[in-house]
Amino acid sequence: MADPRIIDIELDERTILWRSADIEQERRIAIFDLIEGNHFAPQREQADGYAGPYRVRLSVEEGRLAIEIRREDGTPLETLVLGLARFRRPIRDYFAICDSYFQAIRQSTPQQIETVDMARRGIHNEAAELLQERLAGKIEIDFDTARRLFTLICVLHIKA
Fold first, then answer.
1. CA nearest neighbour of 30 among 122, 140, 119, 147
2. Above 90 in pLDDT, residue 99?
């Protein structure tokens, strides 16, 4: 019986040198929301028909995203590698707008916060659509799953 969802997600902590309290909170929320509800269906059929649930580990090495997919019991299934060149600008823009958002929360009016948040959501949505497009034919994910995965990809890109 198919159960196409992520039940556990891990980030390669070796690539994360530092993160602020705000970013750490974003990471925790993204992981919690992702585990609570997601659609994640690798498109490569397994010989025994296994179709979830999955344990996933994300890492970034040499400009590529590695998505390690394992069975519920931890047995490896496959690792997909995705070039991240097309994500450089969305990641950079997302970091910039998040900085503005976190500053706005501390010192701006509700209307200014809402304006920055709308811009942040717009960048996030565009990046989620790009992720869905790049994973097409490899992993079927829904929009909310793509948004949360993009957040975690951004966390992996924090260098200092």
1. 147
2. no
